[in-house]
Amino acid sequence: QAQLVESGGGLVQPGGSLRLSCAASGSTRGLWKWSWYRQGPENQREMVASIATGSGGRTDYADSAKGRFTISEDSAKNTVYLQMGSLKPEDTAVYYCKAQDWLNTYWGQGTQVTVSS
Question: Distance of CA 87 to CAs 21, 24, 92, Å?
């Protein structure tokens, strides 16, 4: 079993930036795909960005995140980051980290991001 802990959320003004972190512990050796999802108060959980560490670091982004968000990973620290810029009020949501090995899917507890003036 792997455990995921997100951090870095908070209140930011429109146009600002935040960096979210997702640290994994426990059985992390087989984790090969990491994703960030978000869920607003009236929305379904949606994928924001993903990275496949075994495929040369292939990344994918939701259209809403392209050009503003960057996902990256530090394998030595078993940590994945989501650098968010040019934040908008509609980015307000709880952001969740997801990690997968070949058999299991793990979720973190989420971190709140609020974009407001």
Answer: 17, 26, 9
Per residue in 6-47, pLDDT (tens digit) is 999 999 999 999 999 999 998 888 888 999 999 998 889 999
Q: How far apart are CA 8 and CA 6, in angstroms?
A: 7
**Amino acid letter, residue 45:** R
Q: Identify the DSSP state of 108.
A: -
Helix (H, G, I), strand (E, B) or coil at 33: strand
For residue 13, which amino acid is it? Q
Query: What is the DSSP pairing of strand 10-12 with strand 111-115?
Result: parallel
> What are the backbone angles phi and psi of residue 28, rounded to the nearest 5°?
-105, -10
Please count the residues of the chain. Answer: 117
